[in-house]
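Hello forum,

I keep getting stuck at the same step: I have a sequence, I want structure tokens, and every attempt I make locally crashes halfway through. Rather than fight my setup again tonight, could one of you with a working pipeline run this one for me? It's a single chain of 157 residues.
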Amino acid sequence: MRARRLTLASRLATQPNSPVAGVGHSIGTTVLLALAGGRLWMRAADGPLPIVPCSRIDRLALMAPATGFFQAPGALDGVQTRVAVWAGGLDTITPPAHAEFLKYALDGRVPVELRTFEQAGHFSFMNVLPPHVTDPLPDRDAFLEHLQSEVCRFVTS
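Reply #2:
Ran it on my machine without issues. Output:
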């Protein structure tokens, strides 16, 4: 359902056939990877989810990616777009190994930029923290300003 909604939103918000950049955090990155051609697996017995790729996606900016859904052999072979990945060194929900897996799985076929912020946690990439979450960053505002600049640079390059 999320994938279908994102596809419909991209059609409503852009000109026909114009390229689309996907920007997501955590589980949102999972949906974007599936829309970019990845095969998302919930359980091996069920096979990949029937998500129709969106050919207009020309780049993905992914923060704290949840890549456990793409562990099946060849699950990311259909992804043919540029990817920038940001990981938090203190992320215990989607540790940096998730981002490293993505780089390893895609590198050589598509350009992948990977940055790990050692003092960032899982929610550090969000503008508004969930209730009862304390961010480990020493200067959250500076981090978010830097992140915004990097995401904008990647999306518009």
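The longest helix spans residues 140-156. If your local run keeps crashing, start a new thread with the error log.
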